Amino acid sequence: MSSILTNNSAMVALQTLKGINANLTKTQDEIATGKSVATAKDNSAVWAISKVMEADVNGFKAISESLALGESTVSVARQASETVSDLLTDIKGKVVAAQESNVDREKIQTDINSLRDQITAVVGAAQFNGLNLVEGTDSVDILSSLDRSNDGTVKASSISVDRQDLSSTAGVLGSGTDLSANATLSDTSASNAGNTATITLAADADVSGDAFEINVGGATVSFAAGEISGDESAAADSISGAINALGLVGITASAASGVVTLTSTRAFEDVAVSGTKNGGATDITLSGTEISERAETMTFSSAANVAEGDGYQISVGGTAFTYVAGKGETFEDVARGLKAAVDGGGNEDISTEVSQNDAGQWTLKVDNDGATPAALSRAGAADGTASGGLFGLGGIDVTTDAGAKAALGNVETLINNSIDAAASFGSVEGRIETQSDFIGKLTDALKSGIGSLVDADMEATSARLQALQVQQQLGTQALSIANQAPQNILSLFR
């Protein structure tokens, strides 16, 4: 049935044309924006995912900037540490030269002072944007990543950089928990007298037929049968004189009534002693197999730990010397710090040595070569201000024999500290560089992923545009034909 009121063909053609126009508009939008999902109405789920990923990309851009800043800061600290290490090596060369007695130690000390001032300048200048990693002990966190979990929560991750204090500042003993029990002294006085051992010869009216062999500190004195005439007192006199004639450093011998007394003033060395008569131990008695070292010992606990701010103090002859531990230090560091403090005290009669005993405990040995004994005491307390990593640098003085000898061991400790600092910064710098490279690659991967979700396929879109344009033309013609259909009814009325 034909009707002039209802044109079904025109309505169908019109709806078809509307659909074509809608698709054509969407395709043109894709071409204009380059996106198949430009707004939430295009595909709400995909749009939401893409927006979350875009937010992550922006976050990672900020992280890249943070890593670049952190890497530069750590690089400055590493280069400063390496420079300090080189300067300390130069100081060591000067200290070694000062071991000779026929050099101008005053001029060498002047060179050392200049190098020391340069180290101070390097440490003070080693900052980037106001942050100095070679001063202080607080750690610094560098933002390194954003970690998104399955439930959508986001957590920031950081790379922690430990400061490596290369200042030479003295620590301040705290007033916290008493730590004195962690350090024990072998005596309350450092004696200036030597330790002794005796060799007692049995009474003998005639020793001319006896042979003697005495070993002291690796040196041997021997008498064949017939070389000594008289009784045991004469033998003791002969043995004593022969030992003194060896010229052993720090060892002297005396004789009285058949007894040879050996005295050792060696500070940090036990002296082995042995003796035989006629090839055996008969008729010869030793008070011991060695003469112990003269130095007194401060022994640190092997069970306790050292925390940042733990300070220990040793007083020698009424003068207190203090070292306060920094982060991550051990009793070895404490012992070496106290050694540097004592050595820098200017007392030429006092010498020190750091060692580890058979039980694994670290010890500080103190020897007194003065005219009178020196009182010893110790203290310890928590919550102090840490000493600098180059503590003791200012106490290096090679103008005396004792100072030159002490400086040799102390500068080695300082070099090791600076090397450890440079190695630590180098390791962190490498990690930051690796993380920075990863963040760059991750950002590119996220961008690629977002593109695969929302970017339009331009080849397909172009082909679809051409097809829709043809469809639009055909739809327009179809609508035009459908609109002309009612005119055909007029022919029925002619």
What labels would you give this structure?
structural molecule activity, secreted, Flagellin_C, 4-stranded antiparallel beta sheet, 21% strand, 4 domains, rod-shaped, f41 fragment of flagellin, N-terminal domain, alpha+beta, 494 residues
Return Rg in Å: 45 Å
Q: What percent of the residues sit in helical stretches (DSSP H or I)?
A: 40-55%
Q: The CATH topology of the largest domain, please?
A: f41 fragment of flagellin, N-terminal domain
Task: Please give the count of helices.
Answer: 7
The largest sheet is: 4 strands, antiparallel
Beta-strand content bin: 15-25%
How many domains? The number is 4
Q: What string, H for helix and E for strand, traces the elements in order? A: HHHEEEEEEEEEHEEEEEEEEHEEEHH
Q: Would you identify the regions where 5 or more consecutive residues have pLDDT less than 50?
A: none
Global outline:
rod-shaped
Number of strands: 20
Mean pLDDT: 89
* CATH architecture call of the largest domain: Up-down Bundle
Q: What is the CATH class name of the largest domain?
A: Mainly Alpha
The CATH superfamily of the largest domain is known as f41 fragment of flagellin, N-terminal domain
Keywords: Bacterial flagellum, Cell projection, Cilium, Flagellum, Secreted
GO molecular function, one term: structural molecule activity
Protein name: Flagellin
Function: Flagellin is the subunit protein which polymerizes to form the filaments of bacterial flagella.
Describe the structure.
The structure is a single chain. This protein is α+β, with helices and mostly antiparallel strands and about 500 residues long. The protein folds into four domains: about 10-35 and about 455-494; about 45-160 and about 420-445, f41 fragment of flagellin, N-terminal domain (Up-down Bundle), CATH 1.20.1330; about 170-190 and about 295-385, no CATH class; about 195-290, Alpha-Beta Plaits. Helix content is about 40%, strand content about 20%. Strand 1 (about 125-130) and strand 2 (about 130) form a beta hairpin. It starts with 7 loop residues before the first helix and ends in a 10-residue tail after the last helix. The model has no long low-confidence stretch (mean pLDDT about 90). InterPro entries: Flagellin (IPR001492), Flagellin_C (IPR046358), Flagellin_C_sub2 (IPR042187), Flagellin_N (IPR001029). Belongs to the bacterial flagellin family.
